[in-house]
Backbone:
């Protein structure tokens, strides 16, 4: 599965007058400083931004929304940018909109398993979490320290996400699937719930469709299909307006006119004076 928006042919973006006006530069400079403060030592150099090198643009997206963006001088459609939602990259010519505009959740298939990290959690508290009853919580609760592996995966839509697996699982392993008996019970459970709770909600419908596909596939674990929150917000840039360097450059001094230009001007001035004197003299005669 690949998001429809991702497959859409790129709309050629053009330089244009983007509606509205940009925020005061001081406000944006403050945000850049706050972003840079999040890094220390060599990371500051690597991931931080030198405000003196940043160029401010206003862009219009294909959803109609207007956003501001900063580049290192190049037009905002030229380079892939960092996906601040899920890591990875947003392809050149696209940006994330701050709204989903009510788009339903998108699911994409895992294409590659990239990075792996492990995380250890303390024992769960005795008091139930996640609105569970005491009985339900007892089934889920772990009374000892436990660890999971977290994988960064790239999806067929080219975005990334992170998913959790058991420590021992490796991409070359087979996906675990339910036995036919357990699968039938699970399908019956879902079907009777969905029948009793019909929904018009597009998000819920998308989640149900995803579960249906997983049931048809034997309920594989880890799930080969993941929700991509980036697909829901990614948009094509349709137009951009150059605002200027974030830290305005001092105006270059006007070049001095050449000696020839200086002399020509001086001569013209003197000739005008001579002509004036001649006219005055003529009136006397
Ligand atoms: Zn938008
Ligand atoms: Zn995606």
Residues:
């Amino acid at each position: 599965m690949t998001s429809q928006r991702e497959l859409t042919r790129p709309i050629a973006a053009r330089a244009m007058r983007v509606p509205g006006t940009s925020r005061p530069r001081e406000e944006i400079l403050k945000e850049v400083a706050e972003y840079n403060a999040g890094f220390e030592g060599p990371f500051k150099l690597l991931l931080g931004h030198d405000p003196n090198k940043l160029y401010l643009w206003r862009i219009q997206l294909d959803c109609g929304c207007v956003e501001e963006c900063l580049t290192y001088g190049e037009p905002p459609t030229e380079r892939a940018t960092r996906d601040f939602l899920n890591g990875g990259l947003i392809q050149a010519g696209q940006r994330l909109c701050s709204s989903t505009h009510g788009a339903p959740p998108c699911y994409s298939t895992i294409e590659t398993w990239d990075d792996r990290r492990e995380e250890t959690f303390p024992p769960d508290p005795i008091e139930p979490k996640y609105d569970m009853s005491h009985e339900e919580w007892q089934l889920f609760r772990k009374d000892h320290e436990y660890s999971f592996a977290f994988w960064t995966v790239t999806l067929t839509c080219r975005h990334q996400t992170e998913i959790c697996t058991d420590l021992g699982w490796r991409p070359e392993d087979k996906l675990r699937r339910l036995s036919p008996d357990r699968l039938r019970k699970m399908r019956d459970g879902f079907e009777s719930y969905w029948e009793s709770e019909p929904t018009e909600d597009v998000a819920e419908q998308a989640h149900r469709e995803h579960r249906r596909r997983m049931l048809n596939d034997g309920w594989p674990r880890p799930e080969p299909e993941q929700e991509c929150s980036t697909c829901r917000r990614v948009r094509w840039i349709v137009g951009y307006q150059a605002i200027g360097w974030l830290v305005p450059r001092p105006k270059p001094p006007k070049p001095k006119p050449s000696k020839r230009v200086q002399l020509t001007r001086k001569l013209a001035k003197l000739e005008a004076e001579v002509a004036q004197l001649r006219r005055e003299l003529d009136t006397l005669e």
In short: The pocket of zinc ion (ligand 2) is lined by residues 3, 108, 155, 157, 159, 228, 230-231 (CB under 6 Å).
